[in-house]
Amino acid sequence: MKNFIKEFKEFISRGNVMDMAVGIIIGGAFTAIVSSLVDDIINPILGLFGGANLDKLKVSLLGEVTLNYGKFIAAIINFLLMALILFLIIKTLNKASSLRPKKEEEAVTKICPFCKSEIDIEATRCPHCTSQLGE
C-alpha cells in the first residue's frame, strides 16, 4: 500500500498532470468570460438589429413546449468565439516557440571512413565492413 501511495504521488506531481489541471481551471474561468461576453454584450447588440435579445428567441410548439433556438444560436456564437480565441493563442505560442533558438542535438551516429555506413558514435569497429576505427 505504501508503494502504491508513493507511485500515486509521483504520478500527480508530474509536470504534464499539473499543467493539465491548471489548463482545466483556467479553461473553466475562460469559458465563464466568453459566456458572459456572448450573453451580456453580443446578444443585446444583436438584439438591437433583430428587435429582441437572442436568448429570448423561441417558437411555441404545443402548449408550453417551446423550441429555444435563440439559446442554441448563442451557444454556437460562444463556441466560435472560444475556438477563435484558442486558435489565436495557439498560433501565437507556435510563433513564439519557432523564434526560440534551437538546441544543437548531440550526435548519436557517425560515418565509417572506409565504407561510408552510418554507425553508432561509440563504435570502435564498423559492423558493416569490420574496419578498425581510430579514435
TrEMBL record:
It is found in: Cell membrane. GO terms for molecular function: mechanosensitive monoatomic ion channel activity. The keyword Membrane applies. The chain crosses the membrane at residues 20-38, 72-93. Keywords: Cell membrane, Ion channel, Ion transport, Membrane, Transmembrane, Transmembrane helix, Transport. It comes from the Bacteria. Pfam families: MscL (PF01741). It is a multi-pass membrane protein. The keyword Membrane applies. InterPro entries: Mechanosensitive_channel_CS, MS_channel, MSC/AndL, MscL_channel. GO terms for cellular component: plasma membrane. Homopentamer. Belongs to the MscL family. Channel that opens in response to stretch forces in the membrane lipid bilayer. May participate in the regulation of osmotic pressure changes within the cell. This is Large-conductance mechanosensitive channel. The gene is mscL.
